[in-house]
Amino acid sequence: MQSDDYIFIDGFKHIRYKQKTYSLEEMKNRSENYFKWIDNRRSVREFSEKHIPIDIIENIIKSASTAPSGANKQPWTFCLVQNKVLKKKIRDAAEKEERISYSDRMSNEWLDDLKHLGTNENKAFLETAPYLIVVFKRPYEIDFDGNKHQNYYVNESVGLACGFLISAIHNAGLVTLTHTPSPMRFLEKILDRPSNERAYLLLPIGYEAEKTYVPNIHRKSLNEVMKLY
User: Fold this and answer.
1) Cα separations in angstroms, 197 against 33, 63, 86
2) What is the pLDDT of residues 126-160, one digit of tens each?
3) With CB atoms 3.0 to 4.6 Å apart as the test, which of 16, 26, 151, 187 could cross-link to 199 if both were Cys?
């Protein structure tokens, strides 16, 4: 039996969906206001140790997990780290890789491109931020019998979820930084993750420090990022 609320397609139930719409004037205002709000977001490297209730972070992660994914496989795991011992281990391991990167792996051009950001191998924020979210991608799933089942468009799906995550962090009035020490396999070992997970991104989360400064950078103009056909 079917109704206007749902139908069956190839034996699978599909529920009715209706996106809320607005007048053209309100659409323009909402789009402009959203741009101004998101344009205010910055990557921050100086964090306060001020406590944040964990339910706020859980809501942020739930928001990230609403992202679209290939075949709705949702091939991600968000590991929330608040334990100080684990954060110290992560910092030590990350700084070890970063020292090698800054001294040997990065080209002179790369290092020159980073100078205006003021970055270096010191990653104190990995300890001072009250929470770290380590995002893992799952190329495949493992069922109870040990069989592997492929996931699809994994990098794209997890990348979308991370975008949702960053927006949700900003929406909550908190700050973050996308940290990608390379290689990142140490995160899988420290957090004892299963064999089907690969570290994708690390984000410290918290309030900014009392006096925080960020590079005076500028976004590309619309003409540089959009081409109309």
Assistant:
1) 38, 21, 18
2) 999 999 999 999 999 999 999 999 999 999 999 99
3) 187
Q: Report residue 171 as tokens.
A: 């929406």
The token pair that represents 175 in the structure block: 């700050």
Q: Does the pLDDT at position 214 exceed 70?
A: yes
d(CA 132, CA 47): 12
User: Tokens 């004037």 — which residue?
Assistant: 25
Fold of 51-210: NADH Oxidase (3.40.109)
Per-residue HEC secondary structure of the chain comes to: CCECCEEEECCEEEECCCCCCCCHHHHHHHHHHHHHHHHCCCECCCECCCCCCHHHHHHHHHHHCCCCCECCCCCEEEEEECCHHHHHHHHHHHHHHHHHHHHHHCCHHHHHHHHHHCCCCCCCHHHHCCEEEEEEECCEEECCCCCEEECECHHHHHHHHHHHHHHHHHHCCCEECCECCCCCHHHHHHCCCCCCCEEEEEEEEECECCCCCCCCCCCCCHHHHCCCC
- Every domain of the chain and the residues it spans: 51-210
Structure-block tokens of residue 88: 């110290």
